[in-house]
Amino acid sequence: MTSQVESLLSSYTAAELLDPTSEIHKACFSYSTPPSNPIFLTNSTSAKEAATTLALNHISSAPIKKDGKFVGIFDTVDLVALALQTLAETPMGSAISEWGIGDLLGQKTTNLKPLEQVFDGWAKRPMAVAQKSVSLKDILVSFVHSGVHRVVVLDKDEFIGVISQSTIAALLVGSFGLRKPKSAVKWSVGEKSVSEMGIITTNLVTVEPSAIVMEALFKMQSENCSSVAIVEGKKLFGCLSLKDVTLVFSQKNGKKFLISLLFKVG
Amino acid sequence: MNVFMRCEDYFKKLRNQQTMALDGKTVAPVFTIYPTTSIILALEKMVATRSHRIWVVEDENFSVVGVVSLSDIIKIMLK
Lengths: 266, 79
Prior knowledge:
The complex is a heterodimer. Chain A has helices at residues 4-10, 14-18, 23-28, 47-57, 76-88, 101-105, 115-118, 136-146, 165-176, 213-222, 242-249, 254-262, and strands spanning 41-42, 61-66, 69-75, 128-131, 150-155, 158-164, 206-207, 227-232, 235-241.
C-alpha cells in the first residue's frame, strides 16, 4: 500500500520543486526563504573562500565542481574542522575574538591554497546527483538508502539547485501540518508519536552551561555530531549546533551587528 | 559573540539576535517536544525553528530524555 508521503512526492519532480513559479515551490518555501542563486565551489576554490562563502551566504553546504562534474559537498562540518585546525595553530591574542571566518582562516597560509590541496573531508562524504526530471519520491529514496542529506540537481550538465532533507520536511509540513489545506489527507504515520515510532535517540552529547563554545565545538567534532545539548543536571538549558556557531564566523564583531539591527532604518 | 564565551551566554545572545534578525518578527525558539508528540508536529517545529533536530523532554522542568533528528524522521517517511 502506497504511503501518503509516497503519493505526494511521486506527483512532483525536482525541477518543479526548484521552480520559483510553481505552486509546490511556494508551498514548500512558505516557511523559509529559498536560495536566490544556486551556489557551488570548484576544486580550485581556496579553503578560506569556501568557508567564507558558506558563512556569508548563511548556507550550510555547497557542492564542489571539478572538471565539469560534481565531486563532493563542502559543509559546516568542514568549515568548523578548518577553523579548529587553524585555531589550534594560532597564537592566542586579544584580536582573535574579533575575527570573522576569513580573518581566522587567513592566519594559516595553507588555507589560501585550493581546497583539494589542504582538505579532503568533503571527498569522503557520500553525495548524490540527480537530473531535474526525477521525482521527489526518488530524492527521498536517496536520503533513506544512501544516507545523504542533500541531492545536487542538474539540468543535463547545468547546476540548478540542491534539494535537502529540510526541503522535503518543509514540503511535508506544508502538505500535512497545521497549515495544510482543509481538503488535504492526513499522513497516518505522521499522526503517531515519536515514542511510538521508536525514533528517540537517548545517547546525548551534552555540555554544561559554563563550558565555553570552543569546548562544545571540539565535542561535536570528537563525537561526530552536529549539535550538543546544554544541560545542567538533567535540565535542558538550551542547545548549540554547528550552524549556530558558524553564525558568529559570518560576523566581524557580533556586538556591532546586533546594534546595527536595533537601529536599522526602513 | 565569539567562541570563547560561555555556552549559556552565547545561547542567550544567539536567540535574541535571531529574533531581531527577522525584522522584529517574533520567532518562538521552541526546540522541545514530549515523547507523546506526534511526528508531524515534531517536524513542524523543526521546520519553524530551522533546525535539524529537536530535544525530547519528559516534563515541564525540561528534564531531557533524548533527541529526534530530521534524519530519523526521513527514514520512516516511506512507511
